[in-house]
């Protein structure tokens, strides 16, 4: 059984006719986009925006109507994955590198639903390295500042090249250990010149739909 698919398909049940939808990124969001495409083929009317070039391509393949950001003021619902979440719906996102676009889209959505398999649910965030998006300019200095913060940063690579986000930036994957105070860490990171944003999503998710290995789906609301 594919637990990501299970959660994703359940979450797509929250999509109603006429809604403006944000499409997440990653292997769980993939299943939501596929399911939404099926419902569109059956006659559901939605307009959507995508959080990455990959999700945009997939949505177009599935026949989901995409609209430019300047033609829409906000969204009704965004469905997206996460790398880690706790029961207060604090999240780590950005494993797929799309955290900045994902955060902008989530912020402008009336509701963010997180979809995940049960392995993503943790007591406290921090096992998954926190992705921090940094500008390429003087990235060595930004990396050094992160190092001084105790982040043990690793510049993300792909095929032996520095990974570049859809926004032309780099990602520093940071190991802070258990994150006791996500809000404080979020503020500290944002105050660092060279940091564009980080993968902590706090106070954004309205609910999480979790797929379990016994075939059940649970919904967490903070
Ligand atoms: O934040 C993300 C991409 O930036 C993804 O939602 C996150 O990495 C989860 O990915 P997956 O569903 O493939 O496990």
UniProtKB/TrEMBL annotation:
Entry GO MF terms: ribose-5-phosphate isomerase activity
Catalytic function, reaction form: aldehydo-D-ribose 5-phosphate = D-ribulose 5-phosphate
Keywords: Isomerase
Binding site for substrate: 25-28, 80-83, 93-96, 120
EC number: 5.3.1.6
Keyword check for Transcription regulation: no
Family: Belongs to the ribose 5-phosphate isomerase family.
Assembly, per entry: Homodimer.
Main function: Catalyzes the reversible conversion of ribose-5-phosphate to ribulose 5-phosphate.
NCBIfam families: PRK00702.1 (NF001924), rpiA (TIGR00021)
Name recorded for this polypeptide: Ribose-5-phosphate isomerase A
